[in-house]
Amino acid sequence: MMKKQIEKSPILELKELQKSFGNNNVLNGFSLQLFEEENLVVMGKSGSGKSVMIKCLVGLIQADKGSIKIKGQDITVLGQNELDLLRTEIGFLFQGSALYDSMTVRENLEFPLRRHKEKLNMKETTEDLIIEALENVGLVDTIDLIPSELSGGMQRRIALARALILKPKIILYDEPTTGLDPITAKEIIELMRSIQKKYGTSSLIITHDVDCARVISNRIILLVDGINYAEGTYQELVQSNDPQVKAFFKH
Q: Which GO terms of the molecular function aspect are on file (predicted)?
């Protein structure tokens, strides 16, 4: 007798998100579900609403309609303190790294720890967590350098270490390989995979890099005209006859 598969609850769920700026309807009822230990890629052309979706998700802008649930909690109705605590469950790798130029690598990594002391384990010092995060990205020896002394790829690794330092359950990657040469981009993708295996994180990856999507994704969503236009594995989508879908995978 076959065992009935238990339906998993999503760790992150966006439902019918709508966002307009004047007459410009950017999100028209966009929905997605991210499950535990999954790598979900969202692809969309420039101006398709990817960055607006991310900003709604991290609370930088408010959606006009729809719900955003993280671990079952709707963030659109939470108070500021509850929202701040829930945000510690999310690590965010910004496009272009977004490190503080005037701070050393150590100070950049200390920054989220200072804001969220309640997440610190009594046995772990700030220094322990900083060293662990830097070991994860292979850059312990850069601890006293400033960002301008690092290559673009190293800056992206330090930004990833900072996103990981609070040991979040979910990591959002916004164009993680943009601006990097192909070899460095490949290294970043491998790093993302090893971190997911080590910590069992769930990853939401926004990218237009088809190679990144092919290598990293368990599932891909295509964001077209503000909706979840198509969804499936890389293999499923690449074999589609839909012209809108095919346009994403032309080399």
A: ATP binding; ATP hydrolysis activity
The helix/strand/coil state of 114 is helix
pTM (whole model) above 0.85: yes
Q: What percent of the chain has pLDDT over 70?
A: 92
* C-alpha closest to that of 139 among 238, 225, 147, 222: 147
Residue 6 reports pLDDT greater than 50? no
pLDDT of residue 116: 64
192 in any annotated domain = no
Alpha-carbon Rg for the chain in angstroms: 19
Most confident of the following: 52-56, 78-82, 145-149: 145-149
Domain count, the chain: 2
Cα–Cα distance for residue pair 172/40, rounded to 1 Å: 10
The two three-digit tokens of residue 62, written as one number: 């408010």
Nearest to 130 by CA among 101, 158, 99, 92: 158
CATH number of the domain encompassing residue 73 = 3.40.50.300
Q: Given 167, 192, 226, which residue is the final one in a domain?
A: 167
Residue 199, phi then psi, degrees to nearest 5: -105, -5
Neighbour-count burial of 250, counting CB atoms closer than 10 A to its CB (0-12 exposed, 13-18 middle, 19+ buried): exposed
Half-sphere exposure of 216 (CA within 13 A, CB side): 33
Question: How many residues are recorded in the chain?
Answer: 251
Structural domain containing residue 158 = 96-167
